[in-house]
Design goal:
single chain; about 120 residues; alpha/beta; six-stranded parallel sheet
């Protein structure tokens, strides 16, 4: 059985690394292309977005039902406002602990980790 896709919204270099890590765990990751105007959240089970790179998609992200993992290298008021605009999100600090990151993805995708609403800084 093929697992649901994961959408990655990040700069090209990291999104390729992230997609490769997820592929090694059996997930199919789709990278959002720079010229894409809209997030098609209905086609994926999880969105991974970096901040502030993914901030330009905040309206789209706030309208999807899928969980969002936000990757950032700092906490700021702007980041917290971005997170508050998302229905169900987790925030991880960079540099990433890849074991923790993969475990969070696995738990979300399998339904073990359910964010009831709002955001969690992990």
């Amino acid at each position: 059985m093929e697992k649901e896709k994961i959408l990655i919204i990040d700069e090209d270099g990291f999104s390729r690394v992230c997609a490769a890590i997820l592929a090694s765990e059996g997930y199919t990751a789709e990278r959002l292309l720079h010229d894409t105007k809209q997030v098609a959240g209905d086609r994926v089970g999880l969105v991974i977005a970096s901040y502030p790179f993914g901030e330009s998609y905040s309206t789209d992200l706030s309208q999807i039902n899928q969980p969002v993992i936000v990757l950032t290298d700092h906490i700021s008021r702007d980041l917290l406002s971005f997170l508050e605009g998302l229905d169900r999100s987790y925030c991880l600090m960079k540099p990433l602990n890849f074991k923790k990151f993969v475990l969070l993805v696995k738990n979300i995708m399998s339904g073990v980790q359910i964010c009831p609403g709002g955001y969690s800084i992990v």
